From TrEMBL:
Protein name (database record): Gliding motility-associated C-terminal domain-containing protein
Record's signal peptide: 1-22
Keywords for the protein's UniProt record, in alphabetical order: Signal
Domain of life assignment: Bacteria
Pfam families assigned to the protein according to its UniProt record, in alphabetical order: CHU_C
Amino acid sequence: MKLEIKNICFIPALLFSGVLPAQTVNTGDLYIANGTIMSTIGAMDNKSSGNLFNDGDFFLYSHYNNDGLVTFSTGATTGTTHMRGLFGSQDISGKMPMDWYDAEFFNVKAQPAFHLSNEVSISGTSDFQQGILDDDNFGGLLIFENGAKPINVNDQSHVDGKVQKNGDESFIYPIGDKNKYRFSGISAPEAVLSSFTGKFFYENSNSLYPHTKKSKEISIINNQEYWTLDKTSSNSDVMLTLSWDESSSTPVYILAAPQSDIHIVRWDASKNLWVDEGGVVDSVNKTVTTPVNVSGYNVFTTARVDESLIVLPCNTITVYNAVSPNGDDKNEYFKIDGLSDCSAGNTVEIYNRWGVKVFETTNYGSNGNVFRGYSEGRTTVSKGELLPAGTYFYILNFKNKTAGYPMIKKSGYLYLTN
Protein backbone atom coordinates (compact mmCIF):
# COMPACT_ATOMS: atom_id res chain seq x y z
CA MET A 1 0.00 0.00 0.00
CA LYS A 2 1.38 3.42 -0.97
CA LEU A 3 1.56 6.08 1.73
CA GLU A 4 0.75 9.53 0.31
CA ILE A 5 2.24 12.45 2.19
CA LYS A 6 0.33 15.72 2.50
CA ASN A 7 2.02 18.48 4.49
CA ILE A 8 3.60 16.31 7.15
CA CYS A 9 6.65 17.17 9.24
CA PHE A 10 8.44 14.31 11.00
CA ILE A 11 9.99 15.66 14.23
CA PRO A 12 11.23 12.74 16.32
CA ALA A 13 11.82 13.38 20.00
CA LEU A 14 15.15 15.06 20.62
CA LEU A 15 17.69 13.32 22.80
CA PHE A 16 19.33 15.05 25.75
CA SER A 17 22.53 17.17 25.62
CA GLY A 18 21.85 18.60 22.17
CA VAL A 19 22.31 15.32 20.30
CA LEU A 20 20.82 15.07 16.81
CA PRO A 21 17.23 13.84 16.55
CA ALA A 22 16.55 10.23 15.63
CA GLN A 23 16.26 8.96 12.08
CA THR A 24 13.23 8.88 9.85
CA VAL A 25 13.15 5.45 8.18
CA ASN A 26 11.16 4.36 5.14
CA THR A 27 10.76 0.67 4.33
CA GLY A 28 7.71 0.79 2.04
CA ASP A 29 6.14 3.04 -0.63
CA LEU A 30 6.26 6.75 0.14
CA TYR A 31 4.72 9.31 -2.24
CA ILE A 32 5.02 13.09 -1.75
CA ALA A 33 2.29 14.51 -3.98
CA ASN A 34 2.59 17.66 -6.10
CA GLY A 35 1.76 20.72 -4.00
CA THR A 36 2.43 19.00 -0.68
CA ILE A 37 5.31 19.16 1.77
CA MET A 38 7.21 16.60 3.80
CA SER A 39 9.93 17.56 6.29
CA THR A 40 12.25 15.47 8.41
CA ILE A 41 14.37 16.98 11.16
CA GLY A 42 16.37 13.81 11.76
CA ALA A 43 18.38 11.87 9.22
CA MET A 44 16.40 10.27 6.41
CA ASP A 45 17.12 6.61 5.66
CA ASN A 46 15.34 5.02 2.71
CA LYS A 47 15.92 1.28 3.14
CA SER A 48 16.46 -1.25 0.35
CA SER A 49 12.73 -2.07 0.43
CA GLY A 50 11.76 1.60 0.31
CA ASN A 51 10.33 3.36 -2.74
CA LEU A 52 10.25 7.15 -2.36
CA PHE A 53 8.56 9.29 -5.03
CA ASN A 54 8.90 13.06 -4.60
CA ASP A 55 6.60 15.19 -6.75
CA GLY A 56 6.20 17.82 -4.04
CA ASP A 57 8.63 19.48 -1.62
CA PHE A 58 10.87 17.34 0.58
CA PHE A 59 12.81 19.28 3.24
CA LEU A 60 15.75 17.46 4.83
CA TYR A 61 17.52 19.09 7.77
CA SER A 62 20.05 16.34 8.38
CA HIS A 63 21.55 13.43 6.41
CA TYR A 64 19.94 11.60 3.47
CA ASN A 65 20.75 7.94 2.78
CA ASN A 66 19.22 5.78 0.07
CA ASP A 67 19.54 2.02 -0.36
CA GLY A 68 16.26 1.65 -2.28
CA LEU A 69 14.46 3.76 -4.90
CA VAL A 70 14.37 7.55 -4.80
CA THR A 71 12.82 9.19 -7.83
CA PHE A 72 9.84 11.24 -9.11
CA SER A 73 6.84 10.25 -11.21
CA THR A 74 7.40 9.59 -14.91
CA GLY A 75 6.70 12.77 -16.87
CA ALA A 76 6.56 14.93 -13.76
CA THR A 77 8.05 18.43 -13.85
CA THR A 78 7.76 19.03 -10.12
CA GLY A 79 9.42 17.68 -7.02
CA THR A 80 12.11 19.60 -5.13
CA THR A 81 14.56 18.09 -2.66
CA HIS A 82 15.54 20.82 -0.19
CA MET A 83 18.80 20.13 1.65
CA ARG A 84 18.56 22.53 4.62
CA GLY A 85 21.24 21.86 7.21
CA LEU A 86 20.45 22.60 10.85
CA PHE A 87 23.14 20.67 12.70
CA GLY A 88 26.28 20.84 10.52
CA SER A 89 27.33 19.13 7.32
CA GLN A 90 24.85 16.80 5.61
CA ASP A 91 25.77 13.39 4.21
CA ILE A 92 24.12 12.34 0.96
CA SER A 93 24.89 8.65 0.89
CA GLY A 94 23.67 5.16 0.08
CA LYS A 95 24.10 2.13 -2.13
CA MET A 96 21.55 3.14 -4.77
CA PRO A 97 21.57 6.34 -6.87
CA MET A 98 18.91 9.01 -6.40
CA ASP A 99 16.89 10.79 -9.08
CA TRP A 100 15.72 14.26 -8.09
CA TYR A 101 13.78 16.64 -10.29
CA ASP A 102 14.75 19.97 -8.67
CA ALA A 103 17.32 20.46 -5.92
CA GLU A 104 18.02 23.18 -3.42
CA PHE A 105 21.24 23.31 -1.40
CA PHE A 106 21.18 25.67 1.59
CA ASN A 107 23.36 25.09 4.63
CA VAL A 108 25.27 27.76 6.55
CA LYS A 109 26.35 25.47 9.38
CA ALA A 110 29.47 23.94 7.82
CA GLN A 111 31.76 24.15 4.81
CA PRO A 112 31.82 22.00 2.78
CA ALA A 113 28.18 21.70 3.69
CA PHE A 114 27.25 18.59 1.69
CA HIS A 115 29.23 15.34 1.63
CA LEU A 116 28.16 13.43 -1.47
CA SER A 117 29.18 9.78 -1.51
CA ASN A 118 26.22 8.63 -3.61
CA GLU A 119 25.16 9.50 -7.17
CA VAL A 120 22.45 12.14 -7.55
CA SER A 121 20.86 12.89 -10.93
CA ILE A 122 19.13 16.25 -11.43
CA SER A 123 16.48 16.59 -14.15
CA GLY A 124 15.32 20.16 -13.46
CA THR A 125 17.08 23.02 -11.67
CA SER A 126 19.77 22.77 -9.01
CA ASP A 127 19.73 25.91 -6.88
CA PHE A 128 23.12 26.40 -5.17
CA GLN A 129 21.98 28.91 -2.57
CA GLN A 130 24.64 28.33 0.09
CA GLY A 131 27.17 25.62 0.79
CA ILE A 132 29.76 23.65 -1.18
CA LEU A 133 28.86 20.14 -2.30
CA ASP A 134 31.96 17.95 -1.97
CA ASP A 135 32.00 14.76 -4.00
CA ASP A 136 35.78 14.81 -4.53
CA ASN A 137 36.66 13.64 -1.02
CA PHE A 138 33.63 11.38 -0.61
CA GLY A 139 33.52 9.51 -3.93
CA GLY A 140 30.10 10.63 -5.15
CA LEU A 141 28.91 12.20 -8.39
CA LEU A 142 26.40 14.92 -9.29
CA ILE A 143 24.75 14.34 -12.69
CA PHE A 144 22.74 16.79 -14.77
CA GLU A 145 20.33 15.19 -17.22
CA ASN A 146 19.21 16.73 -20.51
CA GLY A 147 17.43 20.00 -19.77
CA ALA A 148 18.84 20.33 -16.26
CA LYS A 149 20.80 23.40 -15.18
CA PRO A 150 22.52 24.90 -12.12
CA ILE A 151 21.76 28.40 -10.81
CA ASN A 152 23.19 30.80 -8.19
CA VAL A 153 26.65 29.21 -8.29
CA ASN A 154 29.48 31.14 -6.58
CA ASP A 155 32.62 30.76 -4.46
CA GLN A 156 30.57 29.71 -1.42
CA SER A 157 28.24 27.35 -3.27
CA HIS A 158 29.38 24.97 -6.02
CA VAL A 159 30.56 21.40 -6.58
CA ASP A 160 34.04 20.54 -5.38
CA GLY A 161 34.74 17.51 -7.57
CA LYS A 162 33.26 15.93 -10.67
CA VAL A 163 30.06 16.91 -12.43
CA GLN A 164 28.61 14.84 -15.28
CA LYS A 165 26.38 16.29 -18.01
CA ASN A 166 24.15 13.99 -20.08
CA GLY A 167 22.35 14.97 -23.27
CA ASP A 168 22.76 17.15 -26.35
CA GLU A 169 22.66 20.64 -24.82
CA SER A 170 25.38 23.15 -24.05
CA PHE A 171 26.26 23.32 -20.36
CA ILE A 172 28.17 25.35 -17.77
CA TYR A 173 29.75 23.15 -15.11
CA PRO A 174 29.14 24.47 -11.54
CA ILE A 175 32.60 23.38 -10.38
CA GLY A 176 35.32 24.78 -8.14
CA ASP A 177 38.09 23.90 -5.75
CA LYS A 178 39.46 25.31 -2.49
CA ASN A 179 36.56 27.77 -2.17
CA LYS A 180 37.01 29.09 -5.72
CA TYR A 181 34.22 28.75 -8.28
CA ARG A 182 35.93 28.29 -11.66
CA PHE A 183 33.49 27.03 -14.23
CA SER A 184 34.07 25.37 -17.56
CA GLY A 185 31.51 24.91 -20.30
CA ILE A 186 30.83 22.79 -23.35
CA SER A 187 28.96 23.42 -26.59
CA ALA A 188 25.96 21.28 -27.50
CA PRO A 189 26.96 17.77 -28.64
CA GLU A 190 25.27 16.48 -31.77
CA ALA A 191 24.32 13.14 -30.20
CA VAL A 192 21.57 13.07 -27.57
CA LEU A 193 23.24 10.06 -25.93
CA SER A 194 26.25 12.15 -24.94
CA SER A 195 27.93 12.38 -21.57
CA PHE A 196 30.84 14.62 -20.54
CA THR A 197 32.38 14.97 -17.08
CA GLY A 198 34.18 18.10 -15.85
CA LYS A 199 36.30 19.00 -12.84
CA PHE A 200 38.42 21.98 -11.68
CA PHE A 201 41.79 21.85 -9.88
CA TYR A 202 43.11 24.94 -8.10
CA GLU A 203 46.69 23.75 -8.24
CA ASN A 204 49.74 23.73 -10.48
CA SER A 205 49.62 21.04 -13.18
CA ASN A 206 53.37 21.18 -13.78
CA SER A 207 54.33 18.28 -11.50
CA LEU A 208 52.00 15.91 -13.34
CA TYR A 209 52.13 17.47 -16.82
CA PRO A 210 55.48 19.29 -17.24
CA HIS A 211 55.13 22.77 -18.71
CA THR A 212 58.49 22.50 -20.45
CA LYS A 213 56.99 19.88 -22.75
CA LYS A 214 54.93 22.03 -25.10
CA SER A 215 54.52 22.78 -28.79
CA LYS A 216 56.58 25.67 -30.17
CA GLU A 217 53.83 28.26 -30.35
CA ILE A 218 52.92 27.97 -26.63
CA SER A 219 54.77 30.72 -24.76
CA ILE A 220 53.75 30.18 -21.13
CA ILE A 221 51.25 27.89 -19.38
CA ASN A 222 48.97 28.69 -16.44
CA ASN A 223 50.70 27.36 -13.30
CA GLN A 224 47.88 27.90 -10.82
CA GLU A 225 44.84 26.04 -12.14
CA TYR A 226 43.64 23.44 -14.60
CA TRP A 227 40.51 21.57 -15.62
CA THR A 228 39.63 18.09 -16.81
CA LEU A 229 36.96 17.28 -19.37
CA ASP A 230 36.34 13.63 -20.19
CA LYS A 231 34.06 12.15 -22.80
CA THR A 232 32.15 9.67 -20.67
CA SER A 233 29.98 8.53 -23.56
CA SER A 234 29.39 10.15 -26.95
CA ASN A 235 29.66 9.82 -30.70
CA SER A 236 30.23 13.57 -31.05
CA ASP A 237 32.66 16.18 -29.80
CA VAL A 238 32.36 19.62 -28.20
CA MET A 239 33.97 23.02 -27.99
CA LEU A 240 35.34 23.87 -24.55
CA THR A 241 35.08 27.12 -22.58
CA LEU A 242 37.31 27.98 -19.60
CA SER A 243 36.83 30.89 -17.22
CA TRP A 244 39.32 33.17 -15.53
CA ASP A 245 39.41 35.30 -12.39
CA GLU A 246 42.14 37.92 -12.26
CA SER A 247 41.38 38.71 -8.62
CA SER A 248 42.22 35.25 -7.32
CA SER A 249 43.26 32.14 -9.18
CA THR A 250 44.36 33.14 -12.69
CA PRO A 251 47.96 34.40 -13.07
CA VAL A 252 48.33 37.99 -14.29
CA TYR A 253 50.84 36.94 -16.94
CA ILE A 254 48.14 34.86 -18.65
CA LEU A 255 45.78 37.83 -18.82
CA ALA A 256 48.33 40.43 -20.00
CA ALA A 257 47.62 42.36 -23.19
CA PRO A 258 46.90 41.41 -25.86
CA GLN A 259 44.25 39.07 -24.52
CA SER A 260 43.84 37.63 -28.00
CA ASP A 261 46.96 35.59 -27.23
CA ILE A 262 45.07 33.62 -24.54
CA HIS A 263 44.38 30.11 -25.77
CA ILE A 264 43.26 26.80 -24.32
CA VAL A 265 45.95 24.13 -24.25
CA ARG A 266 45.58 20.39 -23.71
CA TRP A 267 47.94 17.77 -22.36
CA ASP A 268 48.27 15.16 -25.11
CA ALA A 269 49.19 11.95 -23.29
CA SER A 270 50.08 10.14 -26.51
CA LYS A 271 52.61 12.85 -27.44
CA ASN A 272 53.62 13.63 -23.83
CA LEU A 273 53.18 17.28 -24.79
CA TRP A 274 50.97 20.34 -24.26
CA VAL A 275 49.22 21.21 -27.53
CA ASP A 276 47.30 24.30 -28.62
CA GLU A 277 43.52 24.01 -28.98
CA GLY A 278 43.03 27.65 -30.03
CA GLY A 279 41.13 30.40 -28.29
CA VAL A 280 38.33 32.92 -28.79
CA VAL A 281 38.45 35.44 -25.92
CA ASP A 282 35.36 37.03 -24.36
CA SER A 283 36.79 39.76 -22.12
CA VAL A 284 33.38 40.83 -20.83
CA ASN A 285 32.46 37.38 -19.50
CA LYS A 286 36.09 36.47 -18.73
CA THR A 287 36.19 33.31 -20.79
CA VAL A 288 38.16 31.72 -23.60
CA THR A 289 36.61 29.15 -25.93
CA THR A 290 38.12 26.77 -28.45
CA PRO A 291 37.08 27.91 -31.93
CA VAL A 292 36.22 24.36 -32.97
CA ASN A 293 35.68 21.03 -31.26
CA VAL A 294 38.61 19.94 -29.15
CA SER A 295 40.94 17.36 -30.68
CA GLY A 296 41.15 15.29 -27.50
CA TYR A 297 40.11 15.16 -23.84
CA ASN A 298 41.25 15.02 -20.22
CA VAL A 299 43.57 17.85 -19.01
CA PHE A 300 43.18 21.49 -20.10
CA THR A 301 44.30 24.92 -18.95
CA THR A 302 44.92 28.39 -20.32
CA ALA A 303 48.15 29.64 -21.84
CA ARG A 304 49.60 32.40 -23.95
CA VAL A 305 50.32 31.45 -27.55
CA ASP A 306 52.49 33.26 -30.09
CA GLU A 307 51.10 32.33 -33.49
CA SER A 308 53.98 34.12 -35.21
CA LEU A 309 56.16 31.25 -34.08
CA ILE A 310 54.07 28.94 -36.24
CA VAL A 311 54.41 30.86 -39.50
CA LEU A 312 57.93 32.25 -38.98
CA PRO A 313 59.65 29.49 -41.03
CA CYS A 314 57.49 30.45 -44.03
CA ASN A 315 56.67 34.13 -43.85
CA THR A 316 55.31 34.57 -47.38
CA ILE A 317 51.81 33.35 -46.53
CA THR A 318 49.19 36.11 -46.29
CA VAL A 319 45.58 35.47 -45.34
CA TYR A 320 42.88 37.93 -46.44
CA ASN A 321 40.02 37.49 -44.01
CA ALA A 322 37.24 39.38 -45.83
CA VAL A 323 34.87 37.49 -48.15
CA SER A 324 32.13 39.32 -50.06
CA PRO A 325 30.66 37.19 -52.88
CA ASN A 326 28.42 39.91 -54.30
CA GLY A 327 29.75 40.05 -57.86
CA ASP A 328 31.77 43.27 -57.63
CA ASP A 329 35.07 41.42 -58.16
CA LYS A 330 36.31 42.47 -54.71
CA ASN A 331 36.97 39.83 -52.04
CA GLU A 332 34.90 37.33 -53.97
CA TYR A 333 36.56 34.41 -52.18
CA PHE A 334 38.72 33.57 -49.18
CA LYS A 335 42.19 34.40 -50.48
CA ILE A 336 45.46 32.94 -49.18
CA ASP A 337 48.65 34.10 -50.88
CA GLY A 338 51.92 32.18 -50.79
CA LEU A 339 50.62 28.65 -50.38
CA SER A 340 52.31 27.40 -53.53
CA ASP A 341 55.65 28.83 -52.36
CA CYS A 342 55.53 27.36 -48.87
CA SER A 343 53.27 24.36 -49.03
CA ALA A 344 53.78 20.83 -50.25
CA GLY A 345 50.11 20.08 -49.59
CA ASN A 346 47.39 21.70 -47.47
CA THR A 347 43.92 21.45 -46.01
CA VAL A 348 41.49 24.24 -45.15
CA GLU A 349 38.54 23.93 -42.77
CA ILE A 350 36.01 26.67 -42.06
CA TYR A 351 33.55 26.67 -39.14
CA ASN A 352 30.65 28.86 -38.14
CA ARG A 353 30.24 30.47 -34.72
CA TRP A 354 28.65 27.31 -33.27
CA GLY A 355 31.56 25.13 -34.32
CA VAL A 356 29.77 23.54 -37.26
CA LYS A 357 32.04 22.79 -40.20
CA VAL A 358 30.80 24.58 -43.33
CA PHE A 359 33.75 24.02 -45.65
CA GLU A 360 36.57 21.52 -45.97
CA THR A 361 39.00 20.86 -48.79
CA THR A 362 42.52 19.74 -49.69
CA ASN A 363 44.97 21.60 -51.95
CA TYR A 364 43.23 24.90 -51.37
CA GLY A 365 43.68 27.46 -54.15
CA SER A 366 44.36 24.98 -56.93
CA ASN A 367 42.12 24.94 -60.01
CA GLY A 368 39.60 27.34 -58.50
CA ASN A 369 39.32 25.30 -55.31
CA VAL A 370 38.41 28.16 -52.94
CA PHE A 371 35.73 29.20 -50.42
CA ARG A 372 33.21 31.61 -51.97
CA GLY A 373 30.75 31.79 -49.10
CA TYR A 374 28.93 28.59 -50.01
CA SER A 375 28.77 25.32 -48.12
CA GLU A 376 30.85 22.87 -50.13
CA GLY A 377 32.69 19.58 -49.83
CA ARG A 378 32.44 17.13 -46.93
CA THR A 379 30.47 19.42 -44.64
CA THR A 380 27.84 19.16 -41.95
CA VAL A 381 25.41 21.69 -43.45
CA SER A 382 23.52 21.65 -46.75
CA LYS A 383 25.90 21.64 -49.70
CA GLY A 384 25.62 24.47 -52.22
CA GLU A 385 23.79 26.96 -49.98
CA LEU A 386 25.03 30.53 -49.55
CA LEU A 387 25.98 30.89 -45.93
CA PRO A 388 24.63 33.75 -43.77
CA ALA A 389 26.78 36.82 -43.21
CA GLY A 390 28.87 36.77 -40.06
CA THR A 391 32.13 35.75 -38.46
CA TYR A 392 33.67 32.38 -39.29
CA PHE A 393 36.80 30.60 -38.15
CA TYR A 394 39.37 28.98 -40.43
CA ILE A 395 42.06 26.37 -39.83
CA LEU A 396 44.87 26.05 -42.35
CA ASN A 397 47.17 23.03 -42.18
CA PHE A 398 50.03 22.67 -44.63
CA LYS A 399 53.20 20.69 -45.12
CA ASN A 400 55.98 23.22 -45.04
CA LYS A 401 58.79 22.98 -47.58
CA THR A 402 61.18 24.47 -45.00
CA ALA A 403 63.30 21.83 -43.30
CA GLY A 404 62.64 21.37 -39.57
CA TYR A 405 59.00 22.47 -39.72
CA PRO A 406 57.18 19.60 -41.43
CA MET A 407 53.62 20.54 -40.47
CA ILE A 408 52.27 24.04 -39.87
CA LYS A 409 48.89 25.00 -38.45
CA LYS A 410 47.45 28.51 -38.69
CA SER A 411 44.01 29.61 -37.55
CA GLY A 412 42.00 32.80 -37.36
CA TYR A 413 38.82 34.60 -38.33
CA LEU A 414 37.24 35.48 -41.63
CA TYR A 415 34.30 37.83 -42.15
CA LEU A 416 31.59 36.95 -44.66
CA THR A 417 29.31 39.65 -46.06
CA ASN A 418 26.70 39.13 -48.77
